[in-house]
UniProtKB/TrEMBL annotation:
InterPro entries membership: YbaB-like_sf, YbaB/EbfC
The protein, known as: Nucleoid-associated protein GMD78_06785
Coiled-coil segments: 7-34
Keyword field: Coiled coil, Cytoplasm, DNA-binding
Gene Ontology annotations for the cellular component aspect, listed alphabetically: bacterial nucleoid; cytosol
Transmembrane segments: none
HAMAP family assigned: DNA_YbaB_EbfC
Subunit structure of this chain's protein: Homodimer.
A molecular-function term among this protein's GO annotations: DNA binding
Cited function: Binds to DNA and alters its conformation. May be involved in regulation of gene expression, nucleoid organization and DNA protection.
Organism: Ornithinibacillus caprae
Family as reported in the entry's similarity comment: Belongs to the YbaB/EbfC family.
Matches recorded under Pfam families: YbaB_DNA_bd
Length: 106
């Protein structure tokens, strides 16, 4: 029955780790990320859940004859902010999956 004590200990450790993971994930979701393109002409803000919370466009970049440029700036800023969130998520949550050999978990 000695092995059962070890199993109980392992379960407690797993529960502790799960609580830490959930706390880290909650903190990540509350974070705000910001990226801009075109020298600050377009700024996109998103939270850690990858929800865009704000888009700011400077008036001087709005040119009805060049809508493509504005679209490109919005795409660039949005992709940049999403990449920042991915990097922070991997950095934050990766500490829990190190050595577990579970690729693509987060």
């Amino acid at each position: 029955m000695k092995g059962m004590g070890n199993m109980g200990n392992m379960m407690k450790q797993m529960q502790k780790m799960q609580k830490k993971m959930m706390k880290a994930q909650d903190e990540l979701h509350e974070m705000s990320f910001e990226a801009s393109a075109g020298g600050g002409m377009v700024t996109v803000v998103a939270n850690g859940k990858k929800e865009v919370t704000d888009v700011q466009i400077k008036e001087e970049v709005v040119d009805p004859d060049d809508i493509e440029m504005l679209q490109d700036l919005i795409l660039a800023a949005t992709n940049d902010v999403l990449n920042q969130i991915d990097e922070k998520t991997n950095e934050t949550m990766g500490q829990f999956t190190k050595g577990l050999n579970m690729p693509g978990m987060f």
